[in-house]
Design goal:
The chain has five helices and five strands; from the N terminus they run αβαββααββα. It is of the alpha+beta class. It starts with a helix and ends with a helix.
């Protein structure tokens, strides 16, 4: 199974935020949209990272309420891990687990073309498992 299949099911919309936006602004966007992360994207430099709710909480724990006034780039823990639409879901999941990330931007011909979360991947793998169980059950009943 390829990453493109997840994007075909869930859509390719990605919320981005400018590097100079504050953590408070990022938090407001995520809260309003009911999402757990935004891609920090600069027109010249491209993807700078993925800012998650966890990053905001860590900044608040470290710096206190004043952390909400700093640019999102100060809360980024590392450069974004990316993947392509033709990559295998299980390989991307393994990479996410090893690097301890929960959101991976998908690059299509070098441009941001979607995002997958660990939840998206788990949902897809569970659906695959359900289908396999159904096929095996049908096979067992017919023989």
């Amino acid at each position: 199974m390829k990453i493109s299949e997840i994007l075909n099911r869930k859509g390719r919309r990605v919320e981005t935020i400018a590097p100079q936006a504050t953590l408070a602004q990022a938090n407001a966007v995520m809260t309003r949209l009911g999402i757990g992360a935004v891609v920090v994207h600069d027109l010249r430099e491209g993807i700078l990272g993925v800012l998650s709710e966890r990053d905001i909480l860590r900044s608040l724990a470290d710096e206190g309420p004043s952390a909400l006034d700093v640019p999102v780039t100060e809360a980024l823990r590392s450069r974004a891990v990316t993947c392509g639409p033709s990559e295998e879901v299980r390989a991307v999941m393994e990479s996410m687990s090893q690097r301890r990330v929960r959101h991976v931007p998908v690059l299509v011909e070098g441009e941001l073309g979607g995002i997958v979360s660990m939840g998206d991947i788990i949902k897809q793998l569970l659906e695959e498992a359900r289908l396999e169980v159904g096929v095996l059950r049908d096979y067992a009943r017919s023989h």
